[in-house]
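Bench log, entry 3. Co-assembly request; chain sequences pasted below exactly as received.
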Amino acid sequence: MAIMNKQITIGSVSGNDEIRPGYVLMTIHVHRSFPEPRPGQFVMIRIAGLQEPFLSRPLSIFSFSRGRSHGLVKLLYRVAGKGTQILAGLIRGSQVEIVGPLGKGYTVDPSRENRVLIAGGIGVAPLSLLAQHLCRLSGRGANPAVVYLGAKTADELVGLDQLHKYCNSIRVCTDDGSLGEKSLVTRTFQKDMKKHDPARTSIYACGPKPMLQSLAGILKDRYFCQVSLEERMACGVGACMGCAVAVRDENGDKTYRRVCADGPVFDLQKVIWE
Amino acid sequence: MVVEIAGLKLKNPVMTASGTFGCGEEYAGYVDLNRLGGIVVKGLSLKPRLGNPPPRIMETAGGMLNAVGLQNIGVDAFIEEKLPFLRTYDVAVIANIYGESCAEYAQVARKLSAAPGVHALEVNVSCPNVKKGGLSFGADPKAAAEVTKRVKAETHLPVIVKLTPNVTDITVIARAVEEAGADAVSLINTLTGMSIDLKTRTPHLKNITGGLSGPAIKPVALRMVWQAAQKVTIPVIGMGGIMTAEDALEFMVAGAKAVQVGTANFINPLATSEIVQGMRQYVKHHKLKNITEIVGTLKV
Ligand SMILES: Cc1cc2nc3c(=O)[nH]c(=O)nc-3n(C[C@H](O)[C@H](O)[C@H](O)COP(=O)(O)OP(=O)(O)OC[C@H]3O[C@@H](n4cnc5c(N)ncnc54)[C@H](O)[C@@H]3O)c2cc1C
Ligand SMILES: Cc1cc2nc3c(=O)[nH]c(=O)nc-3n(C[C@H](O)[C@H](O)[C@H](O)COP(=O)(O)O)c2cc1C
Ligand code: FES
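Structure output for the full assembly:
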């Protein structure tokens, strides 16, 4: 028999601020027993007592801290459609239902101490929690990770302040050059690639599909690289098979894995881009 | 709250609907499986199935479309890897089965009947009949009856036939499978639908069409359960959009002896156990001896 140790958390929204046009940072007070999330994990969130939107929405955990009286879950999200629009309209004190933390997070191999984070747009969300985690792992003075952060425009470049708390080596780029280098984030990384010895490096990436696909082309199979993927979800816990993503199995054959339960983090080389 | 379906004793009338509860493991951390009336596992086929390419699901008004394409690990892996876990619980396990031919249905049924820990079979006849050019077994009374007979011949377990709503008159199919020896019918499976992205003028689902489930289909499901219950003498198991105990009780009033809860699990992982709880309260409040007293009590 399985241990019944999972629950639905009722959280209270203590902040829900549009930090950039169309980008919102939500802070949620949860019970102090909320399980410690691993970087890369996500929650399924919905407005308590409401059936609109019908399905809960998956959002990565952007940051987590535990105080004496409660835990604080932070989510950073882009208003993409109806569901996130409704979430963005929540005022302080609103109650949300959270299932999670869910999914398998990033794996950190201590022997590969050169860590590279590559974030595109809102893909910065799960990588921020990873940066926080790596910062705790590596001692004082050591650089926990080299970060490549990209977005379409300066307006859409979010999460930089948070990353600055943990890392001092951050390369910023935008498609239009409105902030940092005018380049795609994968291109900026590629120019730097020689600096990262494959044997000592782990790369963690999250961003839009084309970005991850181009990264796959750049890295080939020379680097250890994990990426966080997105698919539409219904259950979030592995029961509905709705969030399938095509990957190669142990024998190299194509199979479908569940983003929610087998991921959302996958080895980049295993992903099949359809 | 005990109900009996074709000799199968359920602790209460609330089961999980196939394809929405995995093989129990995914929700076992949230819900005490021992408190459920039954667990209907994900549809099983003879060989593992890859399923459809993504995107497989889309939200709709009051529900969702899915085109999972019956991705499953196959009956052998189920028996080896999933059943041992389910056997650690004291709960009725109902295996939902699927085949592309009558022979395949029969083979799956035979394997499951020999496996300890399976208490009943639910035959999903909503899948395409390859021989009949893809028309679903469940849309043709003769084919549905034939599948039922073949499965019955292979098993000592109670056989529940799960009906598709994508037919003109569901009672015709219900009657046909009853005559063929079905011990019970369950309905409804999902209603075929589609959803379009206007910006790109493409379907939201890669498979183009998918099965609609959730509260959006409840009125249709209630109507069909009510119609079927009047035409057959075997027990009817009702489902389609049940979110609350009240929803479940409405199905019972319409004639369902037991119910299944599907999409609601996605919205609230505790849905099944909350529905059981709500039913208990109803029994108490209305001073019923057993919940079955309300079955088929619709006043018209
Ligand atoms: C594991 C995981 C973690 C995520 N973390 C974050 C996060 O931290 N911050 C954030 O802003 N977004 C995140 N997303 C994406 C987020 O879930 C979707 O943007 C959101 O569900 C869209 O809902 P909506 O109702 O606003 O938009 P909809 O109206 O449903 O859709 C708007 C657009 O977004 C696409 N979309 C819908 N659902 C998803 C989905 N689940 N994944 C990807 N695209 C989708 C649709 O195809 C459509 O193009 C994550 C997704 C997953 C699977
Ligand atoms: C994601 C998903 C997968 C399903 N898979 C199966 C299946 O494998 N076999 C089956 O007989 N029904 C399957 N169904 C149908 C449900 O068991 C149920 O009949 C239907 O969803 C209506 O009930 P609901 O509205 O409570 O979900 C599936 C439904 C969903 C939403
Ligand atoms: S969302 Fe249901 S299996 Fe992943």
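Chain B has one domain: 3-51+69-192+213-294. Chain B touches chain A at residues 19-22, 25-33, 42, 50-64, 66, 68, 71, 85, 88-89, 214-215, 243, 263, 265-270 (CB under 8 Å).
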